[in-house]
Amino acid sequence: MEEIRLNPEYKNAVAKVVNGSPYFSLLSMEVKDLGWGTSLLEIQVAQKHLQPFGFVHGGVIGSLIDAATFWAVFPQVEREVGLTTIELKV
After folding, report:
1. 8-76: which CATH topology?
2. pTM of the model
């Protein structure tokens, strides 16, 4: 199967919009790369991400998983079709 590569300008445009969004800013989360069925996201872990015992809170990890799966699928969906994540089991 031939690999589908996304236009770099498209990837940069999507990342710019997403990375500037309130939720991503709140979590210090960024889209680093997008592919056809793949995504690479990063969180700069800080004090705000930690639970009372000093470990990264599970909700942060859950948010990262949720966002990564969404953005991996996003390029495969036609522009007119809506997309949302509705269930996550970890």
Report:
1. Thiol Ester Dehydrase; Chain A (3.10.129)
2. 0.88
